[in-house]
Each structure stands twice: as structure tokens, then as C-alpha cells.
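can u pls check wat happens w/ adenosine-5'-triphosphate
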Amino acid sequence: MSSLQELVERRAGLRGAAVDTLQAIVSDWQIIADLSFSDLLMYARDPEDGELTVVAQMRPYTAQTIYEEDLVGRSFASGQKPSVQRAFAGGQIVRDGDPDWSTGVPVREEAIPVPFEGDVIAVVTREANLSMVRAPSQLELTYLQAANDLSQMLAEGEFPFPGEEPERELAPRVGDGMMRVDASGVVMYASPNAMSAYRRLGVSENIIGRNLTGFDPDAERVAEALADGEPLDSEVESRGTVVLRRLLPLTRRHHVLGALMLVREVTELRRHERLLLYKDATIREIHHRVKNNLQTVASLLRLQSRRLQSEEAREALWESVRRISSIALVHETLSQDHRQRVSFDKVAQRLIDMLTTGLTAPDRPVVMRMVGTAGELPAEVATPLALVVSELLQNAVEHAFPDEPGTVEVVLERRSSSLHLLVRDDGVGVPEGFSLDGAANLGLQIAVTLVGSELGGTISVEARDDGPGTVAEVLLPLPSAGD
Ligand SMILES: Nc1ncnc2c1ncn2[C@@H]1O[C@H](COP(=O)(O)OP(=O)(O)OP(=O)(O)O)[C@@H](O)[C@H]1O
Ligand SMILES: [Mg+2]
């Protein structure tokens, strides 16, 4: 679908600040739709032939829409939509007396011109389905009156308010709770939701007829905003209840007539947010402790290995130390990341560092490096994969270079739904008759088991065909990027 900007540029030749003005309206006009129980359409006009194009559409949350279909991009020749044309020409709000039956239901349309630097750059229509109208309640009357005030402000360039950027997702809407106050701050109407919100904040008396500045927990700022005719978004907390409020002054020629106060209780939402943060911190703390415990286990094994006489037994313990340390590494990374995802490049690099420093026999210098990137992996993939890489690296260090030094590369390639990993060396190659199936030793058995059953991937270890040495190849399916 074309964007508003593209449409108004192409169909009406509007640019720069004029487009910004329309964009600001579209980001704030939901309230007018909701208060009017109406669909809103924004029309732009071709300066040459007067053709009208719908450039934006908004449906009300408070009523059923008239237009199931999306009208954005639809054009009307200059003879159609007379009230829109009149609003363009006259710069005044045009209200049509007779309902329009063209959609099958009676629709009353009001056309509101959008001024910009002395010109009308667009027209917004409010279209209400009259067949739904019954004897309106006081709530509905208050809504409609406020909608008229806001429409008038729109026509006079006083709505939306300049520079206003409320927190979109949580921002209170009309249905959450609404109050209408007069210019001095006295509550003329409060919807049941608005009254409940104040009751929870500890205001026990009836608030209708009382001055907002007498009972609102944030009275000073509210009074100031009201006096200055400026919008105010604020959050108040009292007695464990959290309420978001949005004060929208209603003005006429910059003179304050009163204000709308939208009120939304967000106690539960905020509580959930805090809980999530807390859980997050707890999970990280647990990873941190797991890492510490694993390191303690590794140290114990290391201490014990020093007391052993048998070279073989000592080596076996050292192997275990390395394996445990590889797991600890992943937990350490997880303890630093609140999303419980691991940058596997970091883990691979740390494994390389670990093997080059502590665990490599110093008389066989081996250069290790990493090529490419694995991106982020979920914790449950990263832990087994770290062990696999550790085994493969260890094998290269241990078996590939009995006499000569050489190079080991970890090659990582992230594809949209898989990870391709190579560990290759330029050493002596696997022994004659080697096959993975026949590999009886622990290292490759661990790797084969983890890749096959834990990670659902494939692994091969064979002689390189592009030179001397061995290449181990691992292919893992991954949930596609982004989820
Ligand atoms: N990169 C390599 N270069 C040369 N030979 C290798 C390489 N990787 C594996 N091998 C051969 O494959 C055999 C099996 O490896 P595996 O890791 O299963 O056992 P290991 O390394 O001998 O013992 P462990 O890993 O249990 O300590 C090795 O003994 C070695 O002969
Ligand atoms: Mg091994």
C-alpha cells in the first residue's frame, strides 16, 4: 500500500512541512474517530483537475465501521463528493443535512478543511452511520460535543498539538475513561471508567462538579497545562494503582474552552513489566551461578588431576575440565544477555582463546582463527554446539600437528534457516580407514550424538579435498531469523 507521503506527493503535489502536518493529524486523529463514533477519511486534491484521492482512513473503536474495504488510494472525479469540494474551496467545515445512502446505510458526512499557510491542503471527513443512532446517552452527547470541538480545532489549525508525542501503545484511548472539564478545571462529565480509576487512586468522593486541581494527584501540572492550553501526558501512582492520563485542552483561537482528560488504569500492565524485568534479572543471576558452579567443578578436577600418577588418567581429567569449561562459557554469555540468546561468534572466539592459552601443549604452536559469523543462537542450541566445536578444535590441536605447526580455522556461515560450520586444519589428516561411524573414542562420539539428537543436524569428518588436513562439517537447521 502506498504511504501517505507518497500519495499526497503524487496526487496533490504536496511536499515538506505540508506533508508533515498531514502526518501529524493522522497519528493523532483516532480520538476524533472514537469521540464521533465515525469513520474518518482524508482527501487530497489534484491542483490541476480537482480530482480527489483518499490518502488516509481511520475507523472508530467505539462504533461499527461504515467501510469494510480499504479506501486509501481511491480517486473521485471533481464532480463527485460536493461537500469535500466545498470544504476545499471555502475553508469552512461543511455539514450536509441529508444523509448519503450510497453505501446502503444512511451516512452523515461532515467535511473539515485542513489549513496550512493560508491554503486548504486536505479535507478530513467524519462519516457517521445514522442507522445506529438512538437516543444518545450523556456519555455519547459529551463525546460528540468534544468531537465537534476537536474538529473545529482541526479546521483552525489548532489540532493536533505541536510537538506532541505520547507513548503510543499505552496511551489512553477514549474507551478507557474520559472526563470533560471546563476552563477552570471543574469536572462536567466523567465516564464510569474514569471514575473507577480515580476511586482506585484514593479519591472517594464524587468527582463530578469538583475541580480537578482539588483531587488529582498531579494537580499542579494539570492546572498549569490547562492554563497554558497545552497537552499533558502523565502517569500517577497512588495506593498501588497506576493511572495514565492525557489532558487535551480544547481551544478556540488559542483561548482555552476546557479540556478532555483521557484516563487509563495500567496497574496490571506496569506490574507485568516489573515482573518481567525481575524474572529477567533472576534468570541471568541463575546463569551466573551455574557458570560459577561449573568453574568450581572444573577447578576440583584440575586439582585432582595434579595428584594422579598415571599420564592417561591425568589427560582424561583435563579433557573433562575442558568440556565443563566449554559449557560454563555459554552460561557466562547468557548471564550477560537479557534476551537469552547468545552471540555464538563470541563463544567460538572464547573457545579458541581457551584452547590456545591454557590447554594447548606449548611445544606445538597452532594458529587458530575464526572466519564468518554465526549470529545469535538460542541458549538451547548454543550449549551443545559449544561442546561440539570444543571437541573438533581439541582434535585438530591434538591429532593434526604431531610434528609441524599449522593452522586451524573455524568457518561460520549463517543462512536464513540454517547454520553451516566448518572446523578445518592443514595437518596430517585423519588416519587410514577412518570413518565417523567406526569412531570409538569419546570426543567424536560426543559430537555425533549432540549434533544428531540434540541439534537435529548432520556432521561429517573427513580428509580435505582442497589440500592436506581434515575438515569437519556441521549443518544445523535453525528457526528462521527474527523469531
Ligand atoms: N583433525 C584431525 N586430524 C587428524 N586426526 C583426527 C582429527 N580429528 C580426529 N582425528 C582422528 O579421529 C580419532 C577420533 O577422535 P575422537 O575425538 O573421537 O577421539 P580422541 O580425540 O582420540 O579422544 P578424546 O576426544 O575422547 O579425548 C582421533 O583419535 C584421531 O585419530
Ligand atoms: Mg578428541
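The pocket of magnesium ion (ligand 2) is lined by residues 391, 394-395, 443 (CB under 6 Å).
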